[in-house]
Amino acid sequence: MPEPENPLLxxxxxxxxxxxxxxxxxxxxxxxxxxxxxxxxFRDTAGFDGxxxxxxxxxxxxxxxxSDPLSYVRxxxxxxxxxxxxxxVTVPVLSEVFFSQCGKDVRCNPGGFILERSNEPxxxxxxxxxxxxxxxxxxxxxxxxxxQPDRFCTMRFDARTGVGRLFVDLLTxxxxxxxxxxxxxxxxxxxxxxxxxxxxxxxxxxxxxSAATSIREAHLGRAEAYVRSRLADPNLDxxxxxxxxxxxxxxxxxxxxxxxxxxxxxxREQRLExxxxxxxxxxxxxxxxxxxxxxxxxxxxxxxxLFKARFGVTPRDYRRGGEG
Length: 324
Known about the structure:
There is one protein chain. By secondary structure, the chain is α+β, with helices and mostly antiparallel strands. The chain has 2 domains: about 10-205, Regulatory protein AraC (Jelly Rolls); about 210-320, Homeodomain-like (Arc Repressor Mutant, subunit A). The protein is built from 11 helices and 12 strands. It has helices at about 25-35, 140, 160-175, 185-205, 210-230, 240-245, 250-255, 265-280, 290-295, 300-310, 315-320, and strands spanning about 10-15, 40, 50-55, 60-65, 70-75, 85-90, 95-100, 105-110, 110-115, 120-125, 130-140, 155-160. The two termini are about 30 Å apart.
């Protein structure tokens, strides 16, 4: 059943109703609330025009940002009190954008997308009026899907064909269907967006360094995908994963050892993240116990200890909004 409209789930902010002298201040507040603190430089401070529409997808958010030329700078001082790292996946529609982080620059025209990392200073700007789709993704949502995503933050990825095009098509279609979707469906589609984005990144030859790396990445990606599709199975074990992927158990363990985690640790992290996302969803009516068993845990007490060790609060406190 569709949910009643909630301003926390779907919001619109605009400078249209602001007097000229207040537009820049208002826009700074809008941007800080939607993403994180940034320094803004306007070409026309008094006459600036901007509009931001945002949709919540569980722990993710999608926004459409239309504005006059602007420069955004993430300074070192902005990072002092920051919590979890986030990535912004930005898709320009009207004109080119420029992005610089960690001493590397990239320009992205319409037909591509880039990643921006919140926990490092950066500069982002567009010198002409632009229309941007921006997906804000917690770093935890990328855990296990892509290793060291920060290494892709100064690369332009193709959004004109293949999986990249499918990713952008779903971005633009989602707002049209948003009100008819349940909270659980919105969160699930948010994760599908992340999966499509990751696939588009992995399809790029620059993400691989050798044929051997490519083969290992392919095996590891297949194993990870199988595990994510079976997280609800409490009996999931290495033999089952290896058999489904056509590799030996020994090779499977070696693949995960290269990531710095064991297979068991990775499965546990994925289950904890799945539980956290469900507990964070205000539309989820399941009890904590139901969430626990829905994602393959078979001991609620052990789950509570693992959850508190990972996120710093108990599952019930997290659901009540006591995280961090």
